[in-house]
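R.M. (postdoc): so does anyone remember the format we settled on? I'll just put the structure tokens first.
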């Protein structure tokens, strides 16, 4: 936009509160409560009290109408200068990764020098509404100019008007939930229950080990009396997972269970991004660089699985970066369901898929599974929709910083048949 050479975008660091199963530790907390807590902790961590940043982008997937300005309201309580602007955005499960890419783009083009990106979500504080008929009645009464005109609509009040309407995660065009959609993809790619349970087990084992080794000590801050994610099961086993019944396809062909799917989760996360000059002037660390990103969408109504868009986005991003799928030291593939991660990996390995769907001459190939979600994935850690991307960016940046070299790939699937991907590289 400014007709200048793009600037490197530094990831200074990221923080999050522990992710907790919905209706547990955060059952009385709002999105704003959680996001504000993360922002305050981040401001304190990087000594930003009173600092004016260039911009901030945050979002939530499930939120009340009162949260129409969630980003700005949360930021005003963060300790940053009130002159720091902020805006809301939403791209389902890719919300905070999309926010990070947006802020990074503004830094890269010189529009700003620093910014925050993140998100929060809670299923414990659902925005329960009433039927449209009741809403129309209320509005008609409010429009009345006389007492009679205001009272008349209430004569049509019926018990059915008080039946609450809960928000759902059903796709409007297919009438299928995300889990039901993924079951279809699991069958298409012939994913076994055993493989899904194995990935889920590994997710818990890696997350538990990371906590034991202190990896999350400087990434997760205490909130509401909780110090670590409450979904991680260090004692999980294949035998326990095998006893669980399928939840999206309850027939004998169903393979997806509560154990190999992410739980409904509450939480928030954020990352601080900046130009090199801005970070260096404040003696702040540069943990990694955000170097490439891509977003893609698929026709999930007619021809492709709902959560397969990251397979396309990664392919296009690799072309942009002139890299192969094997040119990475870490892979952070969001485990919306164990089946989604496995389907993505299988698609990249498929010569037919890569030739016919991705337009490639050959398959992208396989990855070293020892490099996949090395500190646990969403199945174990949980998945507050809008917070997951920021969780991954902050964690992967730390991994690269500690390693001192290399690059990492991020892949996040979203509702609506979209995928958001990015590449991080060590300084």
């Amino acid at each position: 936009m400014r007709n200048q050479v793009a600037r490197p975008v530094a990831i200074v660091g990221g923080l999050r509160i522990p992710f907790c199963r919905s209706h547990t530790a955060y059952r009385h907390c709002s999105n704003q409560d959680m996001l504000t807590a993360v922002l305050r902790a981040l401001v304190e961590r990087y000594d930003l009290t009173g600092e004016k940043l260039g911009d901030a982008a945050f979002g939530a997937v499930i939120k009340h109408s009162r949260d129409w300005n969630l980003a700005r309201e949360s930021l005003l309580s963060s300790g940053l200068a009130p002159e720091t602007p902020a805006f809301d955005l939403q791209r389902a499960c890719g919300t905070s990764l999309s926010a990070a890419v947006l802020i990074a783009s503004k830094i890269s083009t010189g529009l700003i020098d620093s910014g925050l990106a993140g998100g929060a979500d809670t299923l414990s504080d659902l925005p329960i509404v009433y039927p449209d008929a009741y809403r129309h009645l209320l509005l008609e009464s409010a429009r009345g100019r006389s007492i009679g005109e205001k009272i008349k609509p209430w004569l049509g009040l019926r018990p059915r008007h008080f039946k609450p309407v809960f928000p759902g995660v059903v796709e409007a065009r297919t009438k299928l939930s995300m889990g039901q959609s993924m079951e279809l993809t699991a069958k298409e790619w012939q994913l076994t229950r055993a493989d899904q349970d194995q990935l889920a087990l590994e997710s818990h084992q890696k997350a538990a080990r990371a906590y034991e080794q202190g990896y999350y000590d400087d990434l997760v801050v205490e909130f509401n009396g909780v110090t670590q994610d409450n979904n991680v099961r260090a004692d999980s086993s294949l035998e326990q997972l095998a006893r669980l019944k399928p939840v999206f396809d309850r027939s004998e062909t169903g393979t997806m269970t509560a154990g190999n799917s992410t739980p409904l989760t509450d939480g928030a996360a954020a990352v601080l991004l900046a130009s090199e000059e801005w970070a260096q002037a404040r003696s702040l660390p540069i943990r990694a660089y955000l170097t490439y990103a891509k977003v893609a969408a698929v026709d999930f109504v007619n021809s492709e699985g709902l959560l397969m868009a990251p397979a396309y986005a990664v392919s296009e991003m690799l072309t942009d970066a002139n890299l192969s799928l094997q040119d990475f030291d870490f892979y952070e593939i969001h485990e919306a369901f164990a089946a989604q991660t496995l389907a993505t990996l299988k698609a990249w390995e498929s010569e037919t898929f890569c030739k016919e769907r991705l337009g490639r001459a050959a398959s992208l190939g396989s990855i070293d599974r020892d490099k996949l979600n090395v500190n646990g994935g969403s199945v174990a850690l949980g998945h507050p929709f809008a917070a997951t991307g920021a969780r991954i960016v902050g964690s992967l940046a730390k991994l690269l910083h500690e390693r001192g070299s290399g690059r990492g790939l991020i892949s996040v699937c979203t509702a609506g048949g979209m995928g958001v991907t990015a590449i991080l590289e060590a300084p």
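R.M.: ...and that's the designed sequence above, right after the tokens. Also worth knowing: The chain has a mean pLDDT of 97. The first strand starts at residue 10 and ends at 16.
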